[in-house]
Amino acid sequence: MKRILLMILFAGFVLIPINRVGAQEIEQSTDTQGEDYFGEPLCLPGMAENSQCQFFGSAETVAEMREAGFPYPPRELPAASPSPTYSLMPVYVAKINLDETEPAPIYSSFEDAVARTNPVSQIAQGSMRWVSYVTRMDHEGNAYVQLSSGGWMRAAPAAYTTYQGLLFFDNPRNDFGWVVDQTPTYAAPSFSAQTSSAILYREELHQVYNAVDAENVTWYLIAPDTWVNSLKFRVLHVNTTPPEGVDSDRWIEVNLFEQTLSVYENGKLRFATLIASGLEPFFTQPGVFKIYEKKPLELMQGSFEADRSDFYYLQDVPWTMYFDNARALHAAYWRTYFGYPQSHGCVNLSPGDARWLFEWANEGDFVWVHDPSGQTPTDADFYGPGAP
């Protein structure tokens, strides 16, 4: 019963005080056979235990919540999502859906593309090939797109994620995070604890009130008796102090362990979101860097293997901000979700997040990349130029 009461209070509902009196007072009430009671009233939620009232019911539960780290009344994060218009791409994009072991031919006309005759050029074979286009036409269930160069090719226009992070208008009082894979919650910080029937879904946002390391993971308390583990949850640890090497009141923090990005300005958290950084062995290099070039659209192509079997071709990558050789912060329209390392070294963002960051950032702004777990190599000799 107390757990139910605690959960209702945490959800922000107003409770009607329930009279709880001791056995002696019940006996006195029975003896008076319904006479009016003029004893001390119940304390209201939030009142101190030494107040001139009975410290039972809601007041007692609220006190226990506060002692456990839960504010009363519950506080929402001082944040909001950016405008949905930030997720609108500046170009149309399509995925080349031909066999990745074959080049993708480009034709001078739609008719030639359908007939597969007279190619004028081609894009090399590769597993990750995307183009931008200006016109689309369909034929017998296949999509064909016209490139800005005028050529035509077979490619499939694809949807991209509209996920967005958060804009902050004040510093939050506690950490918060996102679910990155659906999961139940646990009644205690243990995989053997009772699980809830309710499921948390990817990209859900929750505040964090406590953290415990157990069973080789970190457990986060997101509501009374409600725990989620670090395998399924990424946390933004708010720190408004400039890191060593940053001598400015503006910087971008990239946390490789949590796969988060945060933006600070004038001692305030301005923005926070999930990212996808470099996947082993193509780590994103830790260190303090500066944005040295911004490009609204960028062609990214290349390979790492000697046989070029891993060739990639990404046309018109929006909102690119280079900070460490070829490593950049940029939109990744080919990613379906964020919160896990996936790139060749760049810091990938959703289109909406990349656009907001591109508009905020200036060339010369600091980018602090770090891995608090210490798992990412820090030797500069380990790193090449980087890639998307």
Outline the structure in words.
Mean pLDDT is 88; it is low at 12-30. The strands form six sheets. Strands 2, 5, 6, 7, 8, 22, 23, 24 and 25 form a nine-stranded mixed beta sheet that branches. This protein is mainly β and 388 residues long. Among the domains are: 2-67, no CATH class; 90-157; 173-236, SH3 type barrels (Roll), CATH 2.30.30. It is built from five helices and 26 strands. A hairpin with a 2-residue loop joins strand 19 and strand 20. The longest helix is centred in the first third of the chain and has 11 residues, at 57-67.
Q: What keyword list fits this structure?
A:
SH3 type barrels, nine-stranded mixed β-sheet, seven-stranded mixed β-sheet, 5 helices
